Amino acid sequence: MDSAAAARGMTVPALIRSCLTLVGPEALTHLPDPGSPEPVDVSHRTVTLKNGGTRRVRVVPKLRVRHDTPLDAATVRKAAWVAATIGNDDGAHLITAGELNAVESEMSRCRLRLEQLTAALETLAFRPLRQPIRKPWQATYVLGFTHEWGLDTQTVNSRFRTLAPIFHPDTGLLSSAERMSQLLEARNFLLQHLRS
Asked: pLDDT at position 181, please?
């Protein structure tokens, strides 16, 4: 925070005030609270008591920011985080409403495209078989091959690795435990069939 303020030629409270003036405390409400100071930021010092003894006390860094409206500690921490990251190469950036609209329309276009691709993939995906895999044609159907002639273990494993992320029950685009188990069954059947 000190380096961000120094780079802009101002004090830390002035940088936070500028951020609050530019962004506004209301805009910060949806941001996560960066939290209290880290233990490494907390220091200790020795103070002399009235009776002549000494005592070690904890010193937590405090930041005082004057603003038109009263601010709670979380809002000041959020403003400090925003002020420190805006303009950094790896931090947040301010964009215009037009740029935001362009990004949102591109995201909508990508969402629509993803829905179209998911629907196409669902159409092209194999329909789960009702019975266990007992014949090579069933295994090749599940793995998307036209026939079992000319297949080798590398081709079967490669096809399985291509299809498994699509149908994986936890992370797949078309997550399906039934399809995933049939993929495993088909791969194992074909590998066994190729060995015999």
From this structure: 93
